[in-house]
Design brief:
The complex is a heterotrimer.
Chain A: H1 11-19, H2 25-43, E1 46-49, H3 51-66, E2 79-82, H4 109-116, E3 121-125, H5 159-166, E4 172-176, H6 183-189, E5 192-195, E6 216-220, H7 223-233, H8 251-258, E7 267-271, H9 281-296, E8 300-304, H10 312-327, H11 350-361, H12 364-377, H13 383-406, E9 409-413, H14 429-433, H15 440-445, E10 449-456, E11 463-469, H16 475-493, H17 505-508
Parallel strand pairs in A: 2-3, 2-4, 7-8, 7-9
Antiparallel strand pairs in A: 1-3, 4-6, 5-6, 5-10, 9-11, 10-11
Helix pairs in contact in A: 2-3, 7-8, 7-16, 8-16, 10-12, 10-13
Chain B: H1 10-19, H2 26-43, E1 67-68, H3 78-81, E2 88-89, E3 92-96
Antiparallel strand pairs in B: 2-3
Chain C: H1 8-14, E1 15-26, E2 63-64, H2 65-77, E3 81-82, E4 89-92, E5 102-105, E6 112-121, E7 129-142, E8 146-151, E9 159-165, E10 172-178, E11 181-182, H3 188-206, E12 218-228, E13 238-243, H4 246-265, E14 273-278, E15 283-289, E16 299-300, H5 311-318, H6 325-336, H7 340-348, H8 352-360, H9 365-383, H10 394-405, H11 411-422, H12 428-435, H13 443-456, H14 458-465, H15 472-482, H16 489-500
Parallel strand pairs in C: 13-14
Antiparallel strand pairs in C: 1-10, 1-11, 1-12, 3-6, 4-5, 4-16, 6-7, 7-10, 8-9, 12-13, 14-15
Helix pairs in contact in C: 1-4, 3-4, 8-9, 8-10, 9-10, 10-11, 13-15, 13-16, 15-16
Classes of the chains: A alpha/beta, B alpha+beta, C alpha+beta.
Catalytic activity (chain B): L-glutamyl-tRNA(Gln) + L-glutamine + ATP + H2O = L-glutaminyl-tRNA(Gln) + L-glutamate + ADP + phosphate + H(+); L-aspartyl-tRNA(Asn) + L-glutamine + ATP + H2O = L-asparaginyl-tRNA(Asn) + L-glutamate + ADP + phosphate + 2 H(+)
EC number (chain B): 6.3.5.-
InterPro entries (chain B): Asp/Glu-ADT_sf_sub_c (IPR036113), GatC (IPR003837)
């Protein structure tokens, strides 16, 4: 390679290079677009690539920088956005047929902040339909492939964002996390993902899966990059009634402090219920190794018990479908999206068209959850299901409170296993749901969490992740401890974990897989 | 607790699909009903976990009284509003004939 | 289809009606309930819409503070308790007019609950009658869009397609629901009408809505059921939707009473259903059947946080209420201890406010009433003057009464003080002094007058000497005459008895 490969740089490094005049936003945006063209046929991280739009934004960023007035620290650094966030003028499908071709007339607040900060939007990333899934296989537009092994899942629902970052197609991406959809893909692709405190990042324009659980956040390759992005997209939004009207903690500062690798005085709680049975041997080994490293760096480790966490999965699978069944009612063929006329009915009624469209437009997993949620909310069952789940949610929160009285942060493996093979669990919903075992409690209680790569499982050579959780509004702690762990591990590995991933460069050299730029998106 | 873990019948799934306005085919009903039963039996395990004295959590954060001032902000243009419409006529959304009453 | 109806008199002979009224009030806020879109009536279609009120994927609601204030003020005006903490809920059902396919409403936590309104029902040839309507709740919700049906008939049924304008979607509504109104009997239709009419007056006085039924700012749904006379049970109800005038409310109740009774008399049972009111023909027709137990799958709206009005805020809003005339009358009657007749006369004389101010200035309620309805009402009548424009105000009346209470003057002398007041002779005290009206209770002055009276009425004096004490009144009268009414009557009596027994 003769020229600098800008795609291998972190966002923080790109910021420096832009500031130093070593490159331009147009150059590095183009480099990422080229990388997408080269590898995304095989990875299928993107549903939509906005080449013209991204280059136009890059050009504007270069003009601002030339004029000495960059719009933000990250002005000119390109980004990928999960297809669940509304982007004005750019199709937004949520991975569903029912929204095929829908072009929102407005921007989500997160997207508006990215645009205002000057980040060229490369495109929209693949996801499980309406964020329902842990593998991206429930996307109506075909699965995303894990860059570590193209036969394996990249996690989900935000597999597209994680794979885009892991495959060096984007330095930064936005994900959303309802039960682990940022953190679990991070773990299985060897990338960093952060679920901020609920209410810390605006949900306005985020197509809701489960409103009381959803949270948008950064998907990156380093902890510092996540902090930079988080500070940019976070903070109060008057358009989101559940948004916290207080300043964010100093996240970048926390990440820089953590990067020194010193954890003196930090109390780390290992959650008994988030480990052991059901967790892959190699995942547990890498987790123990991370804990040991943190102890060596001065942390004090305590074991904490959160007994209600064993009910978190069931609680989640009542609350989520209930909220989702109501959220997804709006997809009815009347105002936008797909309209399917039922076969064999003359002059069909609105109701008949709704039924036919919703049958044709939603995939199996979406239908499963809508029906489950309809059941959980229906009269006669509300108290036993939805009402009970809301109470267990209180118990989970109390467990967190008790645990955080003993420890500054809680740690666990992010996901119980490494990436499984595509197709392995696609029609076994319960097995699929178990992927979110460790990540769900944080969503139920609104606490922030990060997943940091913790190495490769010995048995399959695939990435694993460590999850670090902190109390509500103490997002700075996940950055401090996450950055410290990242530093300690990279010292041990001699570089980032992703350096060990397949380069996919073979695809660049004319492999048939590289022929299509953006996958099977219509 | 009101009831023990239970499965869900094919007829119940059909009724729920009707409430949710999804035209499930017979094949889909055959496929989904047993899966839903398994999921339901699994999630039903939380019944009885929390006693009557435990308050429900509907919002992860204890916020209240979030209001906006009664001020008009610009709307979308009619063109933007109708941009996604499957069909439009006379600056209105054109929808198939509506049967039944509003509730 | 022609309905069989029972004559109204026969209905009343055999059945007791129970009414229930649900009134939707469209608020006159500048912007919508959950977004900043304008609410101007008659705007071009789909020009007052945004991602939120169009239900676009991803959009979120934020509550309009003024709408909450209006809801609280309506609740207070209806004597409701205001929730310390309440939430919005989603009412899930599919309808093309409703962009999200759920209505953001309130379910088991309404912002206002348990109130009442006293409705005055005019009775032909008799006095007005007051009927207390209990209010179950008043809650906040949002309106739907409007569809136009295009096709051969122009109506919903048989239309080929519909066109929808969402300008109205999301406009704030307050739904006011009564408890079952029972015991109205023959007056049920009038009670229903009077309730809606007086509710409208109240809404207008509050300034929270244009409250025009013809424009749909105020929409009434009428629930009605019959039960066998004296059974005390509640029968199956029907809900007649969108009754769009006061007169129609009355007619719809009457029609449904007669229709129900005919069915019940024929051994049939009432179908729980929605009925449509037809203004032109004055009948209702069957709408949607309700027996299928609609399952709205309510749950707390997760995109909104609870509304927890502080008591300070509620009291501040209470301070902005115009007092309901009926409520005010009831309150004052209780405070003053007036009988119904005394109260009605006071109101009829237009003296309610004057009496209230006189009492506030220190007079006892009965005394205040007595002067205003007696001396002053007569004066107003004689001089053909408004009672409030006599040149004698509440403070003057209170001052006169104070002189009476102090024993400085008596009621008879007080009339002379009023004469002085009409003539502009100064304050009551000045008039008493200037006209020398103060009562004499000094024994030397009174003794001489008593002696004179005894001398001048020997036969009366003899009667008293013989033990007929009751005859003393004649001598007291003579003394009072001698003293021009300014004698202390009680002392005079004592002196007479001392001298003659």
């Amino acid at each position: 390679m003769t020229a600098t490969d800008w795609t291998r740089r972190t966002a923080a490094e790109l910021v420096d290079a832009l500031a130093a005049g070593e490159t331009t936003s147009v150059e590095l945006t183009q480099a990422h677009l080229d990388r997408i063209a080269a590898v995304d046929g095989a990875v299928h991280a993107f549903l939509q690539v906005d080449t013209d739009g991204a280059l136009a934004q890059a050009s504007a960023a270069d003009e601002r920088r030339a004029a000495g007035s960059p719009a933000s620290a990250l002005d000119g650094v390109p980004i990928a956005v999960k297809d669940v966030l509304a982007t004005k003028g750019l199709p937004t499908t949520c991975g569903s047929r029912i929204l095929e071709g829908w072009v929102p007339p407005y921007d989500a607040t997160v997207v508006a902040r990215l645009r205002a900060a000057g980040l060229p939007i490369l495109g929209k990333t693949n996801m499980d339909e309406f964020a329902m899934g842990s593998s991206t296989e429930h996307s109506a537009y075909g699965p995303t492939h894990n860059p570590w092994d193209l036969d394996r899942i990249p996690g989900g629902s935000g597999g597209g964002s994680a794979a885009a970052v892991a495959a060096f197609e984007a330095p930064l991406a936005i994900g959303t996390d309802t039960g682990g959809s940022i953190r679990q893909p991070g773990a299985v692709t060897g990338t960093v993902g952060v679920k901020p405190t609920y209410g810390g990042v605006s949900r306005y324009g985020l197509v809701a899966l489960a409103n009381s659980l959803d949270q948008a956040g950064p998907v990156t390759r380093t902890v510092l990059d996540s902090a930079l992005l988080h500070e940019l997209i976070g903070g109060h939004d008057p358009l989101d009634s559940t948004s916290i009207d207080q300043p964010l903690p100093a996240l970048v500062e926390a990440a820089r402090q953590g990067a020194t690798g010193d954890l003196s005085g930090v109390r780390i709680g290992v959650v008994t219920e988030l480990g052991g049975e059901g967790y892959q041997t190699g995942v547990l080994a890498r987790f123990q190794e991370s804990v040991d490293l943190m102890v060596k760096a001065g942390a004090e480790v305590v074991e904490v018990s959160c007994p209600s966490f064993v009910h978190a999965l069931a609680t989640y699978y009542l609350i989520l479908p209930a909220e989702a069944s109501s959220n997804l009612a709006k997809f009815d063929a009347m105002r936008y999206g797909l309209r399917v006329w039922p076969e064999g009915i003359e002059n069909a009624s609105a109701e008949e068209v709704m039924r036919a469209t919703r049958d044709a437009g939603f995939g199996d997993e979406v239908k499963r959850r809508i029906i489950l949620g309809t059941y959980a909310l229906s009269s006669g069952y509300y108290d036993a299901y939805y009402g009970q789940a809301q109470k267990v949610r209180t118990l989970v929160t109390r467990d967190f409170e008790a645990a955080f009285a003993q420890a500054d942060v809680l740690v666990s493996p992010t996901a119980p296993t490494t990436a499984f093979r595509l197709g392995e669990k696609v029609d076994d919903p319960l097995a699929m749901y178990l992927n979110d075992l460790a990540t769900i409690p944080a969503n139920l209680s609104g606490v922030p969490g990060i997943s940091v790569p913790s190495g490769l499982a010995e048995e399959d050579g695939l990435p694993t992740g460590v999850q670090i959780l902190a109390p509500v509004q103490a997002d700075d702690r996940v950055y401090r401890v996450g950055a410290a762990l990242e530093t300690l591990l990279e010292q041990q590995w001699g570089g980032p974990l992703l350096a060990k991933a397949p380069t996919l460069d073979a695809l660049r050299d004319g492999s048939s897989l590289a022929s299509s730029g953006t996958g099977d998106q219509a | 607790m009101p009831e023990s873990p239970r499965s869900i019948t094919r007829d119940e799934v059909a009724h729920l699909a009707d409430l949710a306005r999804i035209d499930l085919s017979d094949a889909e009903l055959d496929h989904l009903a047993p899966q839903l039963s398994v999921i339901l039996e699994s999630v039903a395990a939380i019944q009885g976990v929390a006693g009557d004295d435990i308050p429900p959590t509907s919002h992860p954060l204890p916020l209240s009284n979030v209001f906006r001032a009664d001020e008009v902000v610009p709307s979308l243009t009619a063109e933007e509003a109708l941009s996604g419409a499957p069909e439009a006529e006379q600056q209105r959304f054109s929808v198939p004939r509506i049967l039944g009453d509003e509730q | 289809m022609t309905e069989t109806l029972l004559s109204f008199d026969d209905v009343l002979e055999r059945y007791d009606p129970a009414l229930g009224l649900e009134v939707h009030v469209e608020l006159n806020t500048a912007s919508k309930m959950f977004c900043g879109c304008a609410t101007v009536f008659g705007a071009e279609p789909n020009t007052q819409v945004c991602p939120t009120c169009l239900g676009l994927p991803g959009a979120m609601p934020v509550v309009n503070r003024t709408a909450v204030e209006s809801a609280i003020r309506i609740g207070l005006a209806l004597n409701c308790s205001i929730a310390e903490w309440c939430r919005f809920a989603r009412k899930n059902y599919f309808y093309p007019d409703m962009p999200k396919n759920f209505q953001t409403s309130q379910y088991d936590e309404p912002i206002a609950y348990d109130g009442w309104m006293d409705v005055t029902v005019p009775i032909d040839g008799g006095d007005d009658e007051t009927f207390r309507v209990e209010i179950e709740r008043a809650h906040m919700e949002e309106d739907t869009g409007k569809s136009t049906h295009v096709g051969t008939t122009g109506r919903i049924h048989g239309a080929d397609y519909s066109l929808v304008d969402y300008n109205r979607a999301g406009i704030p509504l307050i739904e006011i629901v009564t408890k079952p109104i029972r015991g109205a009997g023959a007056k049920a239709p009038e009670v229903a009408r009077a309730y809606v009419q007086q509710l409208r007056d109240l809404i207008v006085a509050l300034g929270v809505s244009e409250a025009r039924m013809d424009q749909g700012n105020l929409r009434a749904d009428v629930n009605l059921s019959l039960s066998p006379k004296g059974s005390g049970t509640l029968g199956t109800r029907t809900e007649t939707k969108n009754v769009n005038s006061f007169r129609s409310v009355e007619r719809a109740v009457r029609f449904e009473m007669q229709r129900h009774a005919a069915i019940l008399d024929g051994g049939g049972s009432i179908l729980q259903e929605t009925r449509h009111w037809h203004e032109d023909t004055g009948i209702t027709t069957s709408g949607r059947e309700k027996s299928d137990a609609e399952d709205y799958r309510y749950f707390p709206e997760p995109d909104l946080v609870p509304v927890a009005p502080s008591r300070e805020w509620v009291e501040e809003l209470r301070g902005t209420l115009p007092e309901n005339p009926t409520a005010r009358r009831a309150r004052l009657q209780t405070e003053w201890g007036f009988s119904d007749l005394e109260m009605r006369d006071t109101v009829g004389a237009g003296a309610l406010g004057l009496v209230e101010e006189t009492i506030a200035a220190g007079a006892a309620p009965q005394a205040a009433r007595k002067w205003w309805l007696g001396e002053l009402a007569r004066r107003a009548n004689d001089t053909d003057t408004e009672i409030g424009a006599l040149g004698v105000g509440p403070a003057d009346v209170a001052a006169v009464q104070q002189l009476v209470d102090a024993g400085t003057i008596n009621d008879k002398l007080a009339r002379q003080v009023f004469e002085g007041l009409y003539a502009g002779e100064g304050t009551p005290e000045e008039i008493v002094a200037a006209r020398g009206l103060a009562i004499v209770s000094d024994d030397s002055a009174l003794g001489a007058a008593v002696d004179k009276a005894i001398v001048e009425n020997p036969d009366v004096a003899d009667k008293i000497r013989d033990g007929k004490v009751a005859a003393a009144g004649a001598l007291i009268g003579a003394v009072m005459k001698e003293m021009r009414g300014q004698a202390d009557a009680a002392r005079v009596r004592e002196l007479i008895l001392e001298k003659l027994t």
